[in-house]
Q: What sequence folds into this?
C-alpha cells in the first residue's frame, strides 16, 4: 500500500492585469495584512476588508463536521494496543507479536497523532470577491483563483485543495507540505450579493460558508479519518514483508492480506458496523468496477518500483480492492484459519528464497487449488 497520503494543491495566482487602452479596466487588487493573515480585496471594498480583518484573527473552522466524528480514534488504538495486536498476531501465523510489529504499531500511533495537525481550521489567506467582477476578469482572460467561467453568466467554483495518496514520504514532510499549502491557498468570501446587508453581515455569512467548506475538507482527509485502519494495515504489511516475503512480486498478496486482516481486526474489536466505516469492500469493488477488466494483480509493481515503472495511478488504486477480494474469497471458502496455515507453510521457506510462487505452492499444498483462480477474470483468459 502506498504509505500515507499526499496533498496536492493546484492554485492559480490572481493577477492585477488590465487590457489595452480603451478596453475593460478592473479595480486594483490590494492586500490588507492583519498579523499573519492576508486579505485580498478590490479597491472600493475597504469596508468589507476591514470587517473581515476584525473577524479573521479569531475565526476557527470545526476540525470535522459533527456527523462525521469518529467513534474509533487513534486514542482508542493506543489504549487497546494489546487487544489489537492479540487479534492481529495469530492471523499472520505468529504466536506473539514480533518485535517489528511492536515497533511499527508504536511508530504509526505517533504518525497519526501528528496527522491531527492536518486539520485546516485557521486560514491565512482570504480573497474578497464580487461576482460581477470575477465574471468580468474571467471573460477578459484573467485567471481568478478557484473560479472558472462556464460561458454567459455561468461561474463554477472549486477550492483547488485536495488530499491524495503519497508515496513513502515521512509524516513530518506531509504535515509541513500541508501547512504550506493551507497558508498559500486563498479562501474566497463573496460580497455584494445582498444590498440590504451590511459589510459585517456579509462577512459573517461568508465565514459561515467557509467553515462548512473547511469542515468538509477536513472530513475528507482519510489520513486522519481512517487512521485506525491504516495503523493495522501498516503493522500487518510490515510484519509480512519483514518475516515472510520481500520479493518484488509480493505486492498484491501483501496489500490484499493487510487490507483484509485490518478490516477483520476492527470488526472483531468494534463490530461490523464500525469496521464498515473504515473499510467497505463491496463499495470499493463497485467504485472500481470500470477498472476490473484492466486488473492484472501479478503485474502490480511493488511500492518502491511504482514511480519508475510509470504504472497507472488509477489501476494502482483499484488493485487494492481486487487484491482484498481474493483474500476475502479464499477465507469465505476455506475459513479464517486458512491465513495462519498459509503463513506457516510459507514460513518453511527462508525469506530470502521466498517469492510469490512460494505463496502459490503453499496454497496449492493446503487446498489443492491454484490461488490464481481467485483473481478477477480478464478478457480472453
A:
Amino acid at each position: 500500500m502506498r504509505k500515507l497520503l499526499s496533498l496536492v494543491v493546484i492554485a492559480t495566482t490572481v493577477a492585477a492585469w488590465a487590457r489595452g487602452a480603451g478596453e475593460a479596466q478592473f479595480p486594483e487588487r490590494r492586500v490588507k495584512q492583519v498579523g499573519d493573515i492576508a486579505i485580498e480585496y478590490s479597491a472600493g471594498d475597504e469596508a468589507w476588508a476591514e470587517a473581515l480583518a476584525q473577524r479573521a484573527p479569531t475565526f476557527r473552522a470545526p476540525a470535522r463536521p459533527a456527523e462525521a466524528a469518529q467513534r474509533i480514534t487513534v486514542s482508542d488504538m493506543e489504549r487497546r494496543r494489546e487487544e489489537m495486536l492479540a487479534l492481529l498476531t495469530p492471523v499472520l501465523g505468529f504466536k506473539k507479536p514480533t518485535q517489528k510489529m511492536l515497533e511499527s504499531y508504536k511508530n504509526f500511533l505517533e504518525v497519526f497523532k501528528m496527522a491531527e495537525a492536518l486539520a485546516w481550521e485557521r486560514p491565512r489567506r482570504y480573497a474578497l470577491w464580487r461576482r460581477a467582477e470575477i465574471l468580468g476578469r474571467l471573460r477578459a482572460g484573467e485567471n481568478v483563483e478557484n473560479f472558472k467561467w462556464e460561458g454567459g453568466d455561468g461561474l463554477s467554483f472549486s477550492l483547488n485543495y485536495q488530499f491524495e495518496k503519497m508515496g513513502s514520504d515521512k509524516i513530518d514532510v506531509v504535515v509541513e507540505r500541508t501547512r504550506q499549502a493551507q497558508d498559500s491557498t486563498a479562501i474566497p468570501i463573496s460580497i455584494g450579493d445582498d444590498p440590504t446587508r451590511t459589510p459585517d453581515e456579509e462577512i459573517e455569512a461568508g465565514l459561515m460558508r467557509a467553515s462548512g467548506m473547511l469542515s468538509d475538507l477536513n472530513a475528507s482527509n482519510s489520513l486522519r479519518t481512517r487512521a485506525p485502519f491504516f495503523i493495522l494495515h501498516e503493522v500487518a504489511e510490515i510484519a509480512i514483508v519483514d518475516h515472510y516475503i520481500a520479493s518484488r512480486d509480493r505486492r498484491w498478496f501483501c496489500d490484499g492480506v493487510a487490507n483484509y486482516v485490518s478490516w477483520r481486526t476492527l470488526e472483531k474489536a468494534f463490530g461490523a458496523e464500525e469496521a464498515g466505516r473504515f473499510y467497505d469492500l463491496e463499495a470499493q469493488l463497485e467504485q472500481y468496477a470500470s477498472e476490473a477488466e484492466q486488473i492484472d494483480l501479478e503485474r502490480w509493481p511493488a511500492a518502491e518500483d511504482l514511480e519508475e515503472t510509470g504504472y497507472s495511478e488509477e489501476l494502482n488504486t483499484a488493485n487494492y480492492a481486487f487484491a482484498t477480494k481474493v483474500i476475502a474469497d479464499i477465507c469465505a471458502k476455506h475459513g479464517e484459519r486458512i491465513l495462519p496455515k498459509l503463513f506457516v507453510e510459507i514460513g518453511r521457506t527462508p525469506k530470502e528464497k521466498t517469492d510469490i510462487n512460494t505463496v502459490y505452492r503453499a496454497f496449492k499444498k493446503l487446498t489443492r487449488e491454484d490461488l490464481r483462480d481467485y483473481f478477477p477474470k480478464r478478457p480472453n483468459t
Remarks:
- The domain at 74-116+225-374 is CATH 1.10.390 (Neutral Protease; domain 2).
- The first helix runs from residue 46 to 55.
